[in-house]
Structures are given as C-alpha cells and as structure tokens.
C-alpha cells in the first residue's frame, strides 16, 4: 500500500492523468470522500504508474528537443560558414577579374 | 484487486523521488521544453542580426533536415504516449466499476446527467426485467445501472 494517500496528493494525480477524461476526473474527485483507504491506495497505485509513464515520456521529448536544437544551430553555423566561404570566393573572383582588366 | 500495473518498479526513476509533486515534475519538463525552444530562437535571431545576408528562407533551409528528423522522433514518442494510455484507461475504468459497485455510486455519465445506457427511462420503468432481458438491455443475473435506476424510481 502506498504510504502517500493524502487527498491533495490523489487530487494532484487525478489532475495530471491523461487517461482520464475531464468528466471522469470530476467523477473521481467527487467519489474520493466515499472511498475507503484500500480503494484510495489502489487508485494511487494506478495513477502513480500513469504519472511515472507521463513523466518518462516528457523526459524523452525534452531530450529529443535538446538534441535537435543543438543539431539545428550547428547546421545553421555550417550554413553560415559555407556562405561566407562562397562570398569570399566570389569576392576573390571579382578581384581577379578587376586585376585582369588593369 | 490486481490491475496488472506495477508501480515505481517499472520506471527508471520514481516520481519526483518523493520530493517533487507529480504536477511539478510535469510542469518542470514542460518548462524545460519551452526554454530549449527559447534558446534556439534567440540564437537564430542573434545570427540573423550578425550576418545580414542570412534570410528567414536561408535559416529554414539550413535547419530543415534536422527539423524533419526531430518531428519524426517526436511523433514516435507521441505514438508511444497514446499506446501507453490504454492500460491505464482500462485499469481506471475497471477499478471505477469496482468502486461504483462497492460504494453504490452512479457511473460518471449518469452522474454528469447523461443517459449512459441510452435506454428510455419510461421503458425501463414499465418493462419487466424479463422483458428488458429479452430486449438485450440487461444481462441475466446482472445488477446493472438500468436495474438500479428502475428499482430506485419504483422505490424498491
């Protein structure tokens, strides 16, 4: 049995749940005062497992976003570098052309 | 009652290590995702200011391959997320039914003022249990919501 089955904690878990529709959230909240400790512990068990899965998933998403933010900026730096090199080459070619005409 | 869902043992880290509220943990990850996006945008803006030749189109072209891969990976995680919901939905529905019958509560739909079973109320009042059985509304020996509703309306 979970040691943490205080009403605010259960309400918190209900709020975080994605498996519960808004209507079901209201229902569970209204049901809470009628529930015995065993029922509360069982509900906490399911909702805690779901909250863990939600958090694990969010963690994955954040890791992906972080990885690709880095990759995107790196790609942008490479693009800039390439463009600068090209511009330098164009400028040198123009200079050569001018020198040829001298 | 066993719902087949294990807690805390099947995840890398327990929720919030007992120090953070579940909603705080969720909000912190959401905040982190927002911060990453802000840092990324700020860097793009900084580079655009520094290199006058850099247009929005250039930036879009340069980051397009990474952006596409990122979207694919995020889509996969979101798909996983959708599949993850299913066992919890099932467990919560099953447990909700148990709580309903143990505590004699109304189903969420009935409690929200919706007619969950779509049985016309008058029909359930005037038809006998046998007739309702024949209509397929009530399974044999069940103590369904329709039974309870009719019984309560008839004062039984």
Task: List the defining traits of the structure above.
heterodimer; A: 102 residues; mainly alpha; 83% helix; 0% strand; rod-shaped; B: 156 residues; 2 domains; 6 helices; disordered N terminus
Report the biggest beta sheet of chain B as strand number plus sense, adding barrel if it closes.
Answer: none
Low-confidence stretches of chain B: 1-14, 115-126
User: Which band does the percent of strand residues of chain B land in?
Assistant: under 5%
User: What's the helix count of chain A?
Assistant: 3
Radius of gyration of chain A: 30 Å
- Average pLDDT number of chain B: 72
**Strand count, sense and closure of the main sheet of chain A?**
none
Helix proportion of chain A: over 70%
- Structural class call of chain A reads mainly alpha
Can you walk through the features of this model?
The complex is a heterodimer of chains A (102) and B (156). With 102 residues, chain A is an all-alpha fold. Chain A has one domain. Chain A contains three helices and no strands. Chain A is rod-shaped and about 95 Å long. Chain A starts with 6 loop residues before the first helix and ends with a helix. Chain B is 66% helix and 0% strand. Chain B has helices spanning 22-50, 56-103, 108-111, 121-126, 129-135, 145-153. With 156 residues, chain B is mostly helical. In chain B, 10% of the residues are buried. Chain B starts with 21 loop residues before the first helix and ends with a helix. Chain B contains six helices and no strands.
